[in-house]
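Troubleshooting log. The previous structure file for this entry was overwritten by mistake, so regenerating from the original sequence record. Sequence copied from the archived sheet and checked twice against the printout by T.R.
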Amino acid sequence: MSKLLIDVRGENFVDPLGRQVILRGVNLGGDCKVPYPDGGTENPTDFSDHRTVSFVGRPFPLEDADLHLSRLTGWGFNVLRLLVTWEAVEHAGPSQYDEAYLDYIAEVARKAGEHGLVLFVDFHQDVWSRMSGGDGAPGWIFEAVGLDMTKFHAADAVHVMQHKYDYGREERRQEDRYPMMSWASNYRLPVNGIMWTAFFAGSLLTPDWKVGGKNVQDFLQDHYIGAVTALAKRVKHLPNVVGFDSLNEPGLGWVGEKLSQHHTAPTVDNPTPLRPGPSWTPLEALKAARGLPTTVPVLGWGEDRNSLIVKSETLANADGVSIWLDDGPDPFERAGAWRLENGEAVVVDEDFFKVHAGKRLDHEDDLMQPFYAKVAAAIRAVRSDWILFAELSPYVFGTGRGFPEPMPERTVNASHWYDINILRFKRFDTGADLSALKAKYMQQLGYLRMLGGRINGGSPTLIGEFGIPYDLNEGQAYDQWAAGERDEGVWNAHATALGLMYDVLDALQLNSTQWNYTASNRNDLRVGDSWNQEDLSIYSIDQRTSNDPMSGGRAVAGFSRPYAQRTQGRIEQMRFDAGKRLFTLQYEADPSIDGPTEIFVPVAQLTTTLSVTLSDPAARWEHAPNEQLVRVWAGAAGSTTVTLSAG
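Regenerated output below.
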């Protein structure tokens, strides 16, 4: 078995020669969350076909793979976060793996290697599954644990585009029915609360909840890890597959929450940010799940638009529909959290989700640590040298919490980061104070880098997701494009925002995979990345203007920029001034490393009349314009500066 093309050494990635590697790439791709070819949320469905769907063709048909992969390498990317879902592997039923899909993904991974791309596999999820408003787990899981997914919408237990959206209306956006970026509200609704609590804390909190003779937690985790293992066995021979993600943005469930206390502000115990809409307690969610009409307060923006306040109340599950196949008592009632008495919900243990055996539950130390160990052991039973790309719930950041200690060896911090204001309001003003915004990014991303530095004495950090919506400013760029404008000014706001982000990634020497590249993306406010009206793809069919392989990119100047892909030594400083078209790399050169520094130099940023200046007179360099690379061989050990500018 060939040695991996990338490994970890302290806080850096290195190649087999010992060169420091900056991994810079994309998530491939946003529509891998939904079945192929027409499973996107722009199409209505009742999910009744959940056992027979296929994901073969996500992220793209194999016959199109070379075109897409060569485009990505042409833009300078060298790593992929390859998205798959548990559902894609095991949708037919327990331990019934989709062999055609496994073969397909293995071939996508092999072709990526042919194009010089390393990758790690991300088993992706958002708010548990497609049937609960996102993606991830297969539909048969619900029946297995005792839930009837056909009742979810009627019981107000989920917020799902296919249930909320009126596909007969002409409006592409329907803010009155399905507001943009509202899918995340599912984390506080009954189904997600039940499933995430069972997945991570079932053995502690509901020990008598059995599925197939196992505790519900063991049942769920064993099947999840079984799907991961099935795919791992298909790609173990590929040296460009360097590891696996633990699980995308794991949910917290109700762990750490009071049973009947409303969440009014993020706390260490419950860091989930407030969002407009109904604000559920665990007890209210359990009542509604059991079929009890339940009054829930509704939050809305205050006058300052910076704080949320109670605006009204709503009656959830007015028709009294139970989502449990067996109407009750539910597993949490049987375990002593609450009881139903004369038709009324009675609190039995207010701290049921917060304290266990006299000790406050810690989601990271008590629940995530054994999960990381379990995933690491499973993938390394297949290939012992694989890297674990570990994720926490993104909601814990900023609360002082981080990864538990110790973590499995050779773990990478694969945390996510977004400018929440850009996501929330889909606006970016190029006339704003960009220096202040950059300082804010430095502080936030610097904090994430610090978390990586704490893992096992120091591990690399790869920002697993970051990016921007392309339908910024009410889709202004699309309107300009439709009017015939084709100059880069159409994407000025997007390129400026991305440029700031990459400036900070350079300054902090962070690795990254931008969200995302969606081969099927459209300039359509209903479609976008084919998932819940999100539209963050750096590529769209609608931007294709010619047969040029590079055609189709959006705001390419914002992300296709010079950087040191491999360094003959260790980077001290790296920066790119897009306005001056000036790139500077300072590094501690190590001539004993038998391989040159390789700097990606996109033709779009620095022309073929390139000027190269070296501080080391004994060093030598070459420009390979067809590869968009400058190679520098160190002449002497010590601090060396390479400057590239447009000639």
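The longest helix spans residues 434-454. Archived copy saved in two places this time.
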